[in-house]
């Protein structure tokens, strides 16, 4: 099977193999990555984390787990501009620096192995974690507790004072949603470093995971434009047009389609 097929095979398991699926994403960008070897080394990390945890009920160990990871050097990558390695799990495990989502996926896999209850939350702009039933969220970058006011401040710090927090922002994230978010992050990081082929690999995965938005099709269309593939660009622009609810965007998409050469048929 190809790495993409193995990625989807992980999602078909019950429960889905979230961490392994994310590792197969790494293989798509670096054929030298060996997911089985990474997972073997990960067991060593799990032992080190477990050794440093306090003697508490498992329901109270999520925050100590995150603090233990931080003690071992895992922290948010603040390198500017952020590079793709901040979202590729094999590189994050090696460097101990990454985006909140990548650190969160590592914490979720550790929690799963140690039978500590913990779930992901697709909070806008900064992935978060939660112990089911708790009245607070946890920052995967160090384990800080975030109560409703903290979440509101975090949201407004990133999106401005007019951004309102909603219940949708606090929902538990399903594995597919987390991997789609990771794919979008990688798409943007590869694009920002002019790696259009790498970005295209991630853009395709975003769409294959389902429930893609107009902006997802538009993102891939822009990559095809940069790679001089007008037929593929037209296909994605037409799909973005069908999905868009924004009248201004629909006008711009129609104009952009009008500037493309007619569809050519290759024999």
TrEMBL record:
<feature type="domain" description="Protein SirB1 N-terminal">
    <location>
        <begin position="53"/>
        <end position="183"/>
    </location>
</feature>
<protein>
    <submittedName>
        <fullName>Tetratricopeptide repeat protein</fullName>
    </submittedName>
</protein>
<dbReference type="Pfam" id="PF13369">
    <property type="entry name" value="Transglut_core2"/>
</dbReference>
<comment type="similarity">
    <text>Belongs to the UPF0162 family.</text>
</comment>
<dbReference type="InterPro" id="IPR032698">
    <property type="entry name" value="SirB1_N"/>
</dbReference>
């Amino acid at each position: 099977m190809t790495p993409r097929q193995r990625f989807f095979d992980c999602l078909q398991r019950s429960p889905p193999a979230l961490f392994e699926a994310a590792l197969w994403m790494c293989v798509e960008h670096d054929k030298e990555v060996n997911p089985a070897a990474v997972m073997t080394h990960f067991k060593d990390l799990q032992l080190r984390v477990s050794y440093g945890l306090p003697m508490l009920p498992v329901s109270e160990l999520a925050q100590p787990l995150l603090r233990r990871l931080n003690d071992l050097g895992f922290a948010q990558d603040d390198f500017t501009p952020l590079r793709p390695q901040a979202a590729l799990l094999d590189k994050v495990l090696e460097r101990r620096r990454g985006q909140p989502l990548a650190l969160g996926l590592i914490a979720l896999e550790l929690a799963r192995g140690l039978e500590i209850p913990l779930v992901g939350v697709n909070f806008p702009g900064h992935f978060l974690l939660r112990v089911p039933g708790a009245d607070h969220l946890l920052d995967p970058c160090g384990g800080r507790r975030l109560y409703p006011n903290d979440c509101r401040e975090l949201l407004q710090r990133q999106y401005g004072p007019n951004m309102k927090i909603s219940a949708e922002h606090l929902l538990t994230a399903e594995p597919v949603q987390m991997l789609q978010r990771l794919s979008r992050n990688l798409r943007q990081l590869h694009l920002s470093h002019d790696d259009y082929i790498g970005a295209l690999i991630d853009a395709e995965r975003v769409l294959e995971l389902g429930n893609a938005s107009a902006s997802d099709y538009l993102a891939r269309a822009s990559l095809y434009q940069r790679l001089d593939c007008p037929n593929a660009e037209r296909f994605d622009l037409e799909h973005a047009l069908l999905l868009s609810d924004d009248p201004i965007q629909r006008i711009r998409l129609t104009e952009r389609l009008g500037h493309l050469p007619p569809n050519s048929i290759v024999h």
